[in-house]
Each structure stands twice: as structure tokens, then as C-alpha cells.
Amino acid sequence: MPSHRAPAPPPDPADDDFPARTAPGCTGLVELDAAVSRCRACPRLVLWREQVARARRAAFADWEYWGRPVPGFGPADASLAVVGLAPAAHGGNRTGRMFTGDDSGDLLFAALHAVGLASQPTSTHPGDGLVLNGVRVTAPVHCAPPENRPTSGERNTCRPWLARELSLLTGLRAVVVLGGFGWQALLPALEAAGHRLPRPRPVFGHGSHVVLPGDDDRSALHLLGCYHPSRRNVFTGRLTFPMLVDVLRHAARVSGLSR
Questions:
Q1: pLDDT > 70 in the chain, percent
Q2: pLDDT beyond 80 at 213
Q3: Region Disordered: what ranges (predicted)?
Q4: Cα separation of 250 and 185, whole Å?
Q5: Cα–chain-centroid distance for residue 202?
Q6: Which residues pair with 177 in a beta bridge?
Q7: Helix%, strand%, coil% for the chain, nearest 5
Q8: Which among 142, 171, 11 is positioned nearest to 71, based on CA atoms?
């Protein structure tokens, strides 16, 4: 007998399972990015990002803040991904582009340009002419969190977006992970995307380099650790511009973007 059961309603962006129900069905990065930008699954993050967008910082009083989740940025055929932590309150949350409009992004894009992976050394706003060459920049949490600290629950809720993004990057050969939080968040996302992880799981460190084996459907994947280009890390000298450039240059080589 034919079933007369009504189809399930589409997921509501405010439901906590919106990422888990929506991400797997996205067939391309354009669709995925649009879905990410509608997400309201984490009430604390929604409240914070919208509050920041209303209040603004005095230096950006004339800006119309993005105030929504920030999708990844870069081409669909990227062979290298750079994974950070989350958008900055007055950076990506303001501009709508990952790592754009804050000190961390200033250093990252200058380094990408120095290695030949970005068309210009600055990233100020969408439409500024920046083009990434074979690189996709993203994060495990897509909303700006209070004090730059997402909770583990927020990270886990957001994970399906990153897992699907990684699976859609079919030519991906290397990932640079900026900071320990990003490293810990990336590993289960890689598993969800179908990659095999060694046991015990690899530990984060600046200069870490782990190779995940390939199979019939995908190439081996190189994971490279790098300290996050946060203001504190740069101010204390824990991460210098040459250190960041060295990691990105190594990543460009193993991903086939340079020789």
C-alpha cells in the first residue's frame, strides 16, 4: 500500500540539530555556505553575535555588521585548507568573511600572499579584490563567541558544517590547523568526512606534521599544526611572521601548490 505519511518538515535554523540535518544534504559549497549563514542553532552565540552587531565598536560605527555565521572562504577546488577557531567579534562578524578585518587575519593573509597563495596581502571586506589560490579558509565554529571561547557543545553542534565542507573539497591534500582548539575540533570532523585517523590521535604542536593515509577515493592528507596568529601569540613572540610563512610554504609544497 502506498504511504500517505506527510514529508518531514524542513529543519528550522533555530533547532539544535539544524547543522546535523542540513549539512549532509548540501551538494556544493555555495549551498553549504548559504545554509551556514542561516544557522541559529546555538542560542548563546546568536545572542552575542547580534548584540555585537548592534552595539558595534566606535572605530566601525559606520559599518553595517554582518552579524551572522561566517562561512568558509576560498575556491571549491582548493587543495589546501586553513582551519582556525572562530570569527572575531569585530572581524569576521563585522565583515562577513572569515579571518577578515582583525589582527589575526592581517597576519594570515600577508603570509598567504608571501607564499603566493593570495593575490594581495590584505583582506578588508568582501569585494576588495582578494583571490585565494588553491586555498580555503574556514573554522570549526562559524559564529563569533564571547571572549573568543566557544564551548565544547557549540563546537560539537557546529561540527557537521566543517565535516561536510571537508568532504566537498574533493581535491584536498593538506590542512594547516591554527591552534590547539582547531586541532581538537578538526580530528572528529575529519573522521566524519571519511578520513582514517591513527591511534592514539595525533597531538597538536607548532610544526606538527601528520599524514593520513589515502584510499581509492582520496589522496593522502597532510595535517600541519601552527600556533594561532592571535594578538597575544604575536605580541609574546610565540608566533612570528617567518614562522607562519614557513608552515604555509611547507603546506603549499605537500598540497602541490608549489615546488
A1: 97
A2: yes
A3: 1-22
A4: 22
A5: 20
A6: 83, 225
A7: 40, 10, 50
A8: 142
Return the C-alpha cell found at 181. 582548539
C-alpha cell at 11: 529543519
Which helix (H) or strand (E) segment is 224 a member of?
strand 221-226
Three cell numbers at 21?
A: 540535518
203 by Cβ neighbours in 10 Å (0-12 / 13-18 / 19+) ranks as exposed
User: In one letter, which amino acid is 114?
Assistant: A
Grid-cell match 589522496, residue found: 219
**80 Cβ contact list (under 8 Å, min separation 6):** 117, 134, 135, 136, 172, 173, 174, 175, 176, 251, 252, 255, 257
What is the rounded CA–CA span in Å between residue 139 and residue 175? 12
In the sheet where 135-138 sits, what is the strand order?
A: 135-138, 80-83, 174-178, 221-226, 209-212
Set out the domains of the chain in order of their start, with CATH numbers.
Answer: 18-254 (3.40.470.10)
